[in-house]
């Protein structure tokens, strides 16, 4: 899950409250003032690590910076 600020972490905690601990779920939060390139590199590293797996990316805002970042990195795999 990729989001602005702490949205993805909060969604995961909420899901775990209902469903229990979740394996193989990763959250990335673009914080205010964080360098978008560094944020994208973190995502790209995880995508590369999981390149032989099926990946579902969820984002909080279609067309937002976090969304554009993950889409551009995902195309590299």
Your description of this structure?
By secondary structure, this protein is mainly α. Helix content is 48%, strand content 8%. It has three helices and two strands; from the N terminus they run βαβαα. It has helices spanning 7-19, 36-49, 65-74; strands at residues 2-4, 28-30. A two-stranded parallel sheet has the order 1-2.
Topology:
Blueprint: E1 2-4, H1 7-19, E2 28-30, H2 36-49, H3 65-74
Helix pairs in contact: 2-3
Number of helices: 3
Q: List unreliable stretches of 5+ residues.
A: none
End-to-end CA span: 18 Å
- Give the percentage of residues in beta strands: 5-15%
Q: Which term fits the overall shape?
A: globular
Q: How are the strands of the biggest sheet laid out side by side?
A: 1-2
- N-to-C SSE string, H for helix and E for strand: EHEHH
* Major sheet description: 2 strands, parallel
Helix share of residues? 40-55%
The residue-averaged pLDDT reads 86
Determine the structural class based on helices, strands and strand pairing: mainly alpha
| DSSP strand tally | 2
Radius of gyration: 12 Å
In short:
The chain is 48% helix and 8% strand. With 77 residues, it is mainly alpha-helical.
